Structure prediction request, 229 residues.
Amino acid sequence: GESVGLHLPTLSVQEGDNSIINCAYSNSASDYFIWYKQESGKGPQFIIDIRSNMDKRQGQRVTVLLNKTVKHLSLQIAATQPGDSAVYFCAESPNSGYSTLTFGKGTMLLVSP
Amino acid sequence: ETGVTQTPRHLVMGMTNKKSLKCEQHLGHNAMYWYKQSAKKPLELMFVYSLEERVENNSVPSRFSPECPNSSHLFLHLHTLQPEDSALYLCASSQVLVSGGTYEQYFGPGTRLTVT
Prediction:
């Protein structure tokens, strides 16, 4: 999984480019995965989720890919816009009645015009 | 109001003070959560209430005391905090099915707490 460190990984892209944000998870029992976006001064906002019986799920301009073999999750954002600039978190959870999400450290996405 | 609301948005308190954070969800959910978000650390789950019962308490110091009077309201009572408790405290809610199943959590905007 993502280790706790001093520096937030940063991805800088140009407006209109496609962005790929990666996340490694450590718990092979995790059944549910979710991506959140957090803008400055706001709480995390749900983007997209995926369950372990799928390897790909698409939303509006976003796609989540799950590779359970290597315990890897990615978020693809098509035609990235300046409004997409934020910190993106992945989270994992075993399938339980209430979701005990374990969050990664996050990746900062910077989109320049 | 819609979604998950939190008050106050900012709070400065001394180490000897007692204060409470409030969270309210307007989504009809039956589970609520408290998280702590510190700089340079992942979100840390503190407490979970599911169907108004506390089901998780992640080794949180006793100076943090949660209260869930009903499925729409959640409080975090604070007393004799330490400067290292300064952080963004986030509340979230989700829907839990009795038959099981995990669904996304919806977060409030957080309370920025500074302990002096």
Q: What stands out?
A: Chain B touches chain A through 29 residues (CB under 8 Å).
